[in-house]
Amino acid sequence: MNKLIDKIIVFFICSTFYILNVQTRNMIIPLLIAVTISAALSYFDHKKANFIVYLVFIMTCFYHYSFIFFLPLLCYDFLPLRRDVTWILVFLPFAVHVHHLSYVTTTLIIFFVLLTMLLKYRTNTIELLKVQYVHLRDDSREDFLQIEMKNKELLEKQDYELNLATLSERNRIARDIHDNVGHLLSRSLLQVGALYATIKEENLKEDLKNIKETLSSAMDSIRNSVHDLHEQSLEVDTEIQKIINQFPFCKIQLEYEVQTVLDKKIKYCFIAVAKEAMSNIMRHSNATLANIIIREHPAFFQMIVQDNGTRKSGKDEQGIGLKNIQERVMALNGRIHISDENGFRIFITIQKKG
After folding, report:
1. What does pTM read for this prediction?
2. Strands (E), 262-344
């Protein structure tokens, strides 16, 4: 767009100067030829062809001096900004038509040529700066996106490590309560039971019975708390990955894409399915690769276990392990599909609550 505006300005100056200095019947012809050649140079981006067109126009200037007035327009399209031998050709028509052009006219045309080249240099500089600005903006945007992605990864890693530390601490607390407080309460219950069995005073027996009931209640409360801590610290992907690490039969890839916290029954179901599926692969398949996929969808959870092997035996009946899997899934109102076409495959969907 900037070059088009520059050429319109240059054409207006050349045409005005041409009309003021040339008064002939065919004065429209040089103007049309100059406009046509200028448009051709702008349209075709071929150096050799443009140079030939430029030479033709210079030779036309030798033929008639009226074409010299449009040299600035042609110079804008062709002449390079650096020093070049083609600059010499611009001044040759002036030497041929020195008797047709006055000194002032010659000086003004040469001045217009230099002014045109200065205008071209300015436009090229602006366009180059624009290109550099676009590249810099794109690079900055790309760097910003990379930094944003790295920050997101760091935050996710930080959240994962924090969650892992929280789960480890919960497991430690559960173990401490179970090993220390639980054992102390169990011993206290045994001691109170022994005293209750040996003592003969009825009033003391009633008090010991109350103490025993209190200790039993405390024991139940601690046991429930320990179970809750253990269930909260149980992570499906971590547990399945532990099982995979201990499975030497074939390579297993795990894809876990769940954001919400799973219900404990679903957790135990998925872990049990993974265990039984790998056991089934080891006993009945010759697979070299298996995949375990657990995904969360808007309305349900999905688990897929599949391998690339074939069954070793021709039996179609299902064993106890697969029946146990079906019972677990059906107890959660889920759906299961088991097939051995193109490899062993278990497909499970369990709806979310609500």
Report:
1. 0.42
2. 289-296, 300-307, 335-339
Return the pLDDT at 225. Answer: 64
pLDDT at 101 over 80: no
pLDDT at 348: 94
The token pair that represents 192 in the structure block: 């109170």
Q: Where are the alpha helices (DSSP H) in 44-181?
A: 47-63, 71-78, 86-96, 103-176
* CA–CA dist 349, 175 (Å, integer): 34
Q: Report d(CA 155, CA 108) in Å as an integer.
A: 69
10 Å Cβ neighbour count for 143?
10
Query: Cα separation of 303 and 294, whole Å?
Result: 4
Measured between alpha carbons, how far is 334 from 351 in angstroms, rounded to an integer?
6
Distance, in Å, from the CA atom of 202 to the CA atom of 330, rounded to the nearest integer, reads 53
- The β-bridge partners of 337 are 347
H/E/C letters for each residue in 305-321?
A: EEECCCECCCCCCCCHH
Cβ pair 62, 93 in contact under 8 A: yes
pLDDT value of position 23:
72
Where residue 316 falls among pLDDT bands split at 50, 70, 90?
very low
- CA geometry: angle 52, 53, 56, nearest 5 deg: 90
| Tens-place pLDDT, residues 132-164 | 999 999 989 898 888 888 888 777 676 656 666
The single residue listed with the structure tokens 């349900």 is 300
Asked whether the CA dihedral 3, 4, 6, 7 is positive or negative, the reply is positive
CA–CA gap between residue 17 and residue 274 (Å, rounded): 90
Other CB atoms within a 10 A radius of the CB of residue 74 amount to 24
End-to-end CA distance of the chain: give it in Å, rounded: 61
Is the pLDDT at 223 greater than 90? The verdict is no
Per-residue tokens: 99: 């008797």
Q: How many CB atoms lie within 10 A of CB 329?
A: 22
List 257's β-bridge partners, or say none.
295
User: Coil, strand, or helix at residue 347?
Assistant: strand
DSSP string covering 43-58: H---HHHHHHHHHHHH
**Residue 278 burial (C-beta neighbours within 10 Å; 0-12, 13-18, 19+):** buried
Phi and psi dihedrals of 301, rounded to 5?
A: -105, 145
